[in-house]
């Protein structure tokens, strides 16, 4: 069964809803004047885990690839405050994979708390690096295949993901 994308469903996210995880140690300068993570830090965490996964699992490299993923839209919904000092557990899943776009979702959890602090993500559109036009053949196979395990819980299987 697919995980819902409405606010009530996102508020109920658990670590197990995300097939891939990375840890992040908060820093003093991550806090704002209210003693919780400043909103832009969440965007950095979202961008970092997605690109980390692509680099580690798909061999993604801006220097060597003729195709690139551009961000078409972003979002972040906040359900609690994470803060310094502490460790965060950042989880990643793929919500949807089309011919030339991928919608990612990231859940952010503070160590010692089961409540999701934020759920955010972005839609990435794969284009030709030189022309910025969408790829005729869609998302490169080198990207699609390593992302398949992240479709868990999306309701989309490998056939509908158009491998």
Automatic annotation (TrEMBL):
Domain Thioesterase, residue spans: 35-116
SUPFAM superfamilies named among the record's database cross-references: Thioesterase/thiol ester dehydrase-isomerase
Alphabetized GO MF terms: fatty acyl-CoA hydrolase activity
CDD domains the UniProt entry points to: 4HBT
Disordered: annotated span: 138-163
Highest taxon above the source species: Eukaryota
UniProt keyword annotations, A-Z: Hydrolase
InterPro entries: 4-hydroxybenzoyl-CoA_TE, HotDog_dom_sf, Thioestr_dom
Family note: Belongs to the 4-hydroxybenzoyl-CoA thioesterase family.
Protein name: Thioesterase domain-containing protein
């Amino acid at each position: 069964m697919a995980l819902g994308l409405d606010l009530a469903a996102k508020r109920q996210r658990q670590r197990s809803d995300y097939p891939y995880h990375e840890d992040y140690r908060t820093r003093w300068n991550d806090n704002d004047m209210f003693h919780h993570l400043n909103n832009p830090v969440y965007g950095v965490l979202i961008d970092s885990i997605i690109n980390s996964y692509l680099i580690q699992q798909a061999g993604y490299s801006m220097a060597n690839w003729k195709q690139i993923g551009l961000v078409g839209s972003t979002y972040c919904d906040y359900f609690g405050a994470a803060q310094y000092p502490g460790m965060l557990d950042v989880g990643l899943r793929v919500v949807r994979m089309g011919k030339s776009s991928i919608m990612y979702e990231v859940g952010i959890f503070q160590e010692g708390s089961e409540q999701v602090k934020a759920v955010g993500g972005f839609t990435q559109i794969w284009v030709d690096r030189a022309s910025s036009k969408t790829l005729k053949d869609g998302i490169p196979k080198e990207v699609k295949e390593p992302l398949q395990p992240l479709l868990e819980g999306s309701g989309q299987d490998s056939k509908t993901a158009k491998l």
